Amino acid sequence: MATATSLMNITDFAPFVEGLDHPEGVTWGPDGFIYAGGEAGQIYRISLAGEVTQIGSTEGFILGLAVDGDLNVYACDLAKGAVMKITPGGQVSQYTDNPEPIPAPNYPVFDAHGNLYFSSSGAWKQHNSKVYCAAPGGKTRVVSEGFPAFANGVALSPDGASLYVVLSNKPGVDRARILEDGSLGAAEHVVTLEGTVPDGVAFDVEGNLYICCYTPDRIYRLTPGGVLDMLAEDPESVTFSSPTNICFAGEDRRTLVVASLARWHLTKGQMPIAGAPYHYPKLG
After folding, report:
1. 20 to 30 A from 81, CA-CA: which of 38, 106, 141, 240?
2. CB–CB of 120/102 below 8 Å?
3. Per-residue pLDDT tens for 233-242?
4. Which residues are 116's β-sheet partners?
């Protein structure tokens, strides 16, 4: 059960960039910039000081994002039904090789080998979501149907051995071991969050799992020992407003950046523990 008090105050967080088009996805790139998306397909590159450049657009609807070692952005596009690749110069192409639209591709994460795991949420409360994997080059296959309750945010465990998947309709988080062939083993229960709609997840270097909720406006922290605390909440829905994806940013990865789908800003706050490192594969 979550504690009644929060580990941090909402005043420990503050918006630092405005004017974005309802960002849901956010990630940290190897070039020292934050990358976020908009609901008309915009791909934004943002400094921690709040300077924004739109590097391109898919003309779709951007959910989660990942970045490779050459600064290409891989964006789950709800409208296109695919993961799209956006080069630093703004060229857009479809990365996944699916001939038919994937139902609600939602959030991607790279492993150490350049495989891109991503959730396909399916339809709300229809329990038809899946997890896909795109091998380097874009060859795409389903690697699990064991997360049917609206698979949403995903994160690799710090050791890279397991994939953690948010299930918005559970509501909670499950995980599965990554097998030798890249597919996922059986889903295992991690945590249930009654009365919430969880969305995004991220790990820190000590193995704490951070879970942000689309509603109510709060972020939880789950320790490796299974203790669930509330990191912070915003009952006024101003600083956090339908928080969706989160990432650890900055040279030391101690700045937690929060995307609020219901507003036009990103929020940041300083954390006592650094986030887990990202994988930035060179895919050629």
Report:
1. 240
2. yes
3. 999 999 999 9
4. 110, 134
Residue that the structure tokens 């499950």 belong to: 174
pTM: 0.97
101, 228, 135: which is closest to 173 by C-alpha? 228
Bridge pairing between strands 228-233 and 52-57: unpaired
Tokens of 33: 């910039």
Residues 48-84: pLDDT tens digits? 999 999 999 999 999 999 999 999 999 999 999 999 9
Q: Which CATH number fits domain 10-270: 2.120.10.30, 1.20.1250.20, 3.20.20.70, 3.40.50.150?
A: 2.120.10.30
Q: How far apart are CA 158 and CA 206, in angstroms?
A: 8
